[in-house]
Amino acid sequence: MADTDTLRARNADFWDRTAPGWVHQADRHDQFGRPLGAVALDWLRPQPGERVLDVGCGCGGTTAEIARAVTPLGSAIGLDLAEAMVTTARDRFTAPDGAGPRFVAGDIETLDAVPGAPFDAVYSRMTLMLLADPVAGLTTVRQAMRPGARLAATVFRDGRVNPWLPAALLGAAAHLGPLPPLPIGEEPGPFAFADPARVTRLLTAAGFTDIGIQPYDVTLDAPDDPEVVTEWLIEIGPAGAAYRDAEPTTRSKARAGVARLLERFRTAGTDYRLPTGLWLINARSDRTSTP
Ligand SMILES: C[S@@+](CC[C@H](N)C(=O)[O-])C[C@H]1O[C@@H](n2cnc3c(N)ncnc32)[C@H](O)[C@@H]1O
Questions:
Q1: What is the Cα–Cα distance from 265 to 259, expressed in whole angstroms?
Q2: Which of 62, 143, 191, 264 has the least C-beta neighbours within 10 A?
Q3: Ligand 1, closest atom to CA 30?
Q4: Any idea where the Methyltransferase domain is (predicted)?
Q5: HSE-up of residue 112 (Cα within 13 Å, Cβ side)
Q6: pLDDT tens string for the chain (291 positions)?
Q7: Which of ligand 1's atoms lies nearest the C-alpha of 85?
Q8: For the domain 4-160+182-223+274-285, what is the CATH code?
Q9: Residue nearest to atom 13 of ligand 1 (CA)
């Protein structure tokens, strides 16, 4: 496994280069990607008046949903490494009078303190497995929580139960040239939290208690529009930066390559149904800890 500094630099570079694709896909991802975090939101049940942190908030759709749940008197703060996504989140969800969720740019692993802490609850959709030093990141999260506060997060299980993920990369890769290094073993990446025993160890080391890790199988449902669906999946994945740099004809070939591999998940004239295997992670900060 590469050392932490290398992994952290790789992660920062990856999100810097991939963020424009996420910005372009923000509305579609809010719509098609909602099942990726719905179970965690159900478990967390943010209440009016609570302060909630959304770790790795991307372009802010989930933070905005949480902000609606904690109104009135509560607050929602979205934190993300990628400046471009934080700027987009602010543009999308800050009301003209300045009300609404707040968004902060920062690396959860290296922040001394999270603005807005202490939190009653922390939410994170599809981010924790990307941390270069998960114990450092989770410790910052736990220290930002009130004693006994709750955490709910989703991460992918493994490649076998998320077949569209490798399909979206393999179908495009042949056309797009060099891509970022693929993670090996427990290196940060989509399947780095595949082993629930490892996840339990990391959460325990960061000071969490009452840890639960449950499998959930969900379906991402998107309209039968191959151009739209393939571009969404390419732009939010590891081929996204190369895709955005490519010529229109190359992009078109990349979309066609992905469409071929996704054909088995398509019902022509109806929709795409992408099977997705998640872990729902829930935990509490130690009731005796000091924030
Ligand atoms: C897979 S995306 C998920 C975004 C959003 N939660 C969603 O589900 O749409 C992972 C997000 O985590 C952010 N991220 C990765 N490492 C991070 C870190 N160390 N600190 C804060 N954010 C991080 C990335 O910039 C990216 O927006």
A1: 10
A2: 264
A3: 9
A4: 52-148
A5: 0
A6: 789 999 999 999 999 999 999 999 999 999 999 999 999 999 999 999 999 999 999 999 999 999 999 999 999 999 999 999 999 999 999 988 878 899 999 999 999 999 999 999 999 999 999 999 999 999 999 999 999 999 999 999 999 999 999 999 999 999 998 888 889 888 999 999 999 999 999 999 999 999 999 999 999 999 999 999 999 999 999 999 999 999 999 999 999 999 999 999 999 999 999 999 999 999 999 877 554
A7: 27
A8: 3.40.50.150
A9: 56
User: What is the DSSP secondary structure assignment for residue 133, as one 8-state letter?
Assistant: S
Q: Is the distance from CB of 127 to CB of 55 less than 8 angstroms?
A: yes
204-236 burial by CB neighbour count: b if 16+ within 10 A, else e?
eebbbeebebeeeebebebeeebebbbbbbbbb
Instruction: Assess contact for 250 and 176: CB atoms under 8 A.
Output: yes
Domain boundaries, the chain: 4-160+182-223+274-285
The one-character DSSP state at 237 is S
CA distance 214 to 190: 17
Task: Select from 10, 81, 193 the residue to mutate for testing ligand 1; criterion: most ligand atoms less than 8 Å from CB.
Answer: 81
